[in-house]
Amino acid sequence: MRNVSRSEYPFASHWLDLSGQRYHYVDEGAGSPVLFVHGNPTWSFAWRRFVSAVAPTHRAIAVDHIGCGYSDKPQEYAYTLDSHVANLCQLIETLDLRNITLVGHDWGGCIGMGAAVELPKRFSRFVLMNTAAFRSKAIPLRIAVCRIPGLGEIAVRGLNAFAGSALWMAVKQRMSPEVKTGFIAPYDNWANRIATHRFVTDIPLDPFHPSYDRLVQVEQGLAQFQNHPMKLFWGEQDWCFTTQFLDEWVRRFPHAAVTRYPDAGHYVFEDAHERMIPELREFLAADRPPPAN
């Protein structure tokens, strides 16, 4: 991806082999790991400012899901919640990460919490933003359209309607040309947009969906983390993960610290990063061991 600015994304690349597929991640700094997990249609580029901010004091790791960012984009692949969780778990175990602080957004919250449910002793704290890891039938019309067979694939893979439109629909603050280019650089043709489309079709809205049972498993596993430190950042102008999703997180985790950004959209990490980073650093500085099991 030649168009990605090195000044915006100056990190060395690392890869994990997953049965022949290359799984890309950033690994900066040292100390307790902070694991950044992106959603759709982003990639580790979304966390660039946060990785740089925490690397002086922590080990900052940001993954690219298979099909995203610098990771391989196979055309014959599951691209399901189960496969993404399994990939993240394999990275965690390969790197032997412990005392993990998860930072997750969008699908990254669900995938990250899925890994935490699978490997609970390795996670100590959680930072979640504009995401869900529980069932919901709420789906915006503009995403539902992208799920229509045939039409949705043409729009998402042929016209780049999902990643392209997010450059202005997911933010309230205008992005610079370099940042816009960075976000969409991995998704420059039909083949490279496969995961962007498959994430949309993998949203499990009913029990007949292939990823529904896995989502239920993640949801049912959340309660074990009620006494773990949790920070919730929320862009209140998000038309997808509205404040109703935040209310559900607070209901499940009443002790979570919450910061709302009334002027930020779905890409809260873009709109409010200057305010979020000091709070994230403060949250990380209050390092404490996870509750005894």
**Judging by the overall fold, what is the CATH architecture?**
3-Layer(aba) Sandwich
Shape: globular
Mean pLDDT figure: 95
**The CATH superfamily title:** Alpha/Beta hydrolase fold, catalytic domain
Main sheet characteristics: 8 strands, mixed
Q: According to CATH, what is the class?
A: Alpha Beta
Unreliable runs: none
- The oligomeric state of the chains shown is single chain
Q: Work out the count of structural domains.
A: 1
Strand content: 15-25%
Distance from N terminus to C terminus (CA atoms, Å) equals 44 Å
Query: Which secondary-structure class do the elements indicate?
Result: alpha/beta
Number of strands: 8
Fraction of residues in helix:
25-40%
Number of contiguous helices: 12
The strand order across the widest sheet is 1-2-4-3-5-6-7-8
Please describe the topology of this protein.
Blueprint: E1 14-18, E2 21-28, E3 33-37, H1 48-54, E4 59-63, H2 81-94, E5 100-106, H3 107-118, E6 123-131, H4 141-145, H5 151-158, H6 161-169, H7 177-184, H8 194-201, H9 212-221, E7 230-235, H10 243-252, E8 257-261, H11 268-271, H12 273-285
Parallel strand pairs: 3-4, 3-5, 5-6, 6-7, 7-8
Antiparallel strand pairs: 1-2, 2-4
Helix pairs in contact: 1-12, 2-3, 3-9
